[in-house]
Design brief:
With 494 residues, this protein is α+β, with helices and mostly antiparallel strands. The chain contains 16 helices and 26 strands. The structure holds zinc ion (ZN). Zinc ion is lined by residues 97, 99-100, 102, 138, 140-141, 143. The site of zinc ion has 8 residues, from loops.
Length: 494
């Protein structure tokens, strides 16, 4: 066994190799030389994995918490982003090389060269000083850096013949805020309640990189919880999770500790029962998605790192071979969103809560889907005797069962085909008769199929099949008539 012999950094390479060789995902427009970086296509197995991940999110967050799901437009008017603040502040600092014209993202460049952390709110002037002090020059030609400016990361589009200014949404949540009032009324809700949305967002990143980790077009799953700020602790829904232990890393701590929601509330690490409840829900979700508990942390952002409107901010991060990766931003956005749209649109956004008129505050769980899928793949991938085994939770597996005739001849083939046809109505199954049985097992272990079903000599005698488990390679015999129930039980969400 060469288990664990693999260097940590190469886990990333292993995931990328699997992705490309088996078609989970691939660079978009790859046959053309002018393909811009930061765009990826999902192949058949990637789509299936993504759909199952989204179904798990629906089940463990949207349905569990009785949230409402919407599906908004991707192109939104300029005023939406004027009100949200994106037009003015959704910018990255950049500088140009005066000689070769290479463009650098300034804060990252300074951090790379000096190790100094540049706070999100540092001004261009602050950064210019750092560049001078440390003599930072162009990495390519050594030229002097000039043209310090801000670059807005939204994609502008021209709508209609007149080319009216509009933007591809840089986050999915704005539709939730601008539709809030109509949904509140038509669905007859009371505070607190949440609206959720899955869809694509677009950001014109200056230097997209690392596959699914920083893309220019990507999937988000966002949840916006609307609540009365005076009642964030009047929240009985949280009672059943009070003993659940969160993996917290509060401001000023450099390690993660297990703290029950109850203790986190009593020691004021977390501001309210409402926030504790949603942090618990999102951590439980990733545990179900196959990320080991010890690789999850909820890191509190200090004032330097969080958005100016966020009163409290936690990032759910997962540890990988590339370091800790932010998967979900959990932000208390206060009344920034509804307040901003109320001011610019003139549409009053307040609602009645037990006779009190309130402008709802928002607690947000903003999830990156693509990077979540990367983290799940990396945490599931193993190299055993130089072969990849993808130990996905069975309910996330793109294919749930492979049906294999032991020999590529009759009557094994038609018996296997008959079983495959009956299974594929309720499960994601494949039929495969090509190659030795060992080679076929390896083929399906590699893409995470949790069980193989083999039709062999004994099947012809007693109507039982061999079931082989991916992770243990244990084989057992199952009556053909029990196969449906057996599979249903094995791929059930736990
Ligand atoms: Zn240069």
């Amino acid at each position: 066994m060469v288990h664990g012999a693999m260097g940590e950094r190469s886990k990333y390479d292993l995931v990328m190799r699997l992705a490309l060789e088996r078609g989970f995902f691939m660079p978009s427009s790859e046959i053309y030389g002018d393909a811009p970086a930061g765009f990826w296509d999902y192949g058949p197995l990637g789509v299936a994995l993504k759909n199952k991940f989204i179904e798990l999110w629906r089940r463990e967050l949207v349905k569990r918490d009785d949230m409402l799901e919407i599906d908004g437009a991707q192109i939104l008017s300029k005023n939406v982003f004027r009100a949200s603040g994106h037009l003015e502040s959704f910018v990255d600092p950049i500088a140009k090389c005066g000689k070769c014209k290479a463009i650098y993202r300034l804060d990252k460049l300074i951090e790379e060269r000096t190790g100094i952390h540049v706070p999100e709110r540092a001004s261009l002037e602050d950064m210019r000083k750092l560049v001078e002090e440390h003599g930072i020059r162009c990495g390519r030609c050594g030229g002097e850096l000039t043209d310090f400016s801000h670059f807005n990361m939204m994609f502008r589009v021209g709508v209609g013949v007149a080319g009216l200014d509009a933007y591809l949404r840089p986050e999915t949540c704005q539709s939730i805020f601008i539709d809030f009032l109509r949904i509140y009324k038509t669905m007859r809700r009371k505070l607190p309640f949440a609206i959720a949305q899955v869809g694509k967002s677009f950001r014109n990143e200056i230097s997209p990189r690392q596959g699914l980790l920083r893309m220019r077009e990507f999937y988000q799953a966002e949840i916006e919880v609307f609540f009365n700020p005076r009642k964030a602790n009047d929240f009985p829904k949280a009672d059943p999770i009070l003993d659940y232990k969160l993996r917290l890393q509060p401001i000023g701590e450099d390690s993660v500790k297990d703290v029950s929601c109850r203790d986190a509330l009593e020691s004021r690490l977390i501001s309210s029962k409402l926030v504790a409840y949603y942090l618990a829900l999102i951590q439980q979700f990733y545990e179900k998605a196959g990320i080991p508990r010890e690789k999850i942390r909820l890191r509190e952002l200090d004032e330097d790192e969080r958005a100016f409107y966020a009163a409290e901010a936690w990032d759910l991060e997962v540890e990988t071979s590339l370091g800790w990766i932010e998967l979900v931003a959990c932000n208390n956005r206060g009344e920034h969103d509804l307040g901003g749209h109320e001011r610019l649109s003139g549409q009053e956004m307040t609602v009645l809560d037990d006779g009190e008129r309130v402008l709802p505050n928002v607690f947000e769980l903003s999830m990156g889907i693509d990077r979540s899928l990367y983290c799940i793949l990396e945490n599931s991938i193993y190299l055993v005797n130089n072969r990849i085994i993808l130990k996905l939770p069975p309910y996330l597996a793109p294919i749930q069962a492979a049906v294999l005739p032991l020999l590529s001849k009759e009557p094994f083939k038609s018996e296997a085909m008959r079983i495959y046809r009956s299974l594929k109505q309720d499960f994601d199954a494949v039929y495969d008769a090509s190659g030795s049985i060992g080679r076929r097992y390896a083929r399906y272990d590699e893409i995470g199929v949790p069980v193989d079903i083999t039709i062999d000599h004994q099947t012809l005698e007693d109507r039982t099949v061999t079931v082989r488990f991916r992770d243990s390679t244990i084989q057992l015999r199952v009556e053909e008539s029990d196969l449906m129930n057996f599979l249903r039980d094995h791929v059930k969400i736990r």
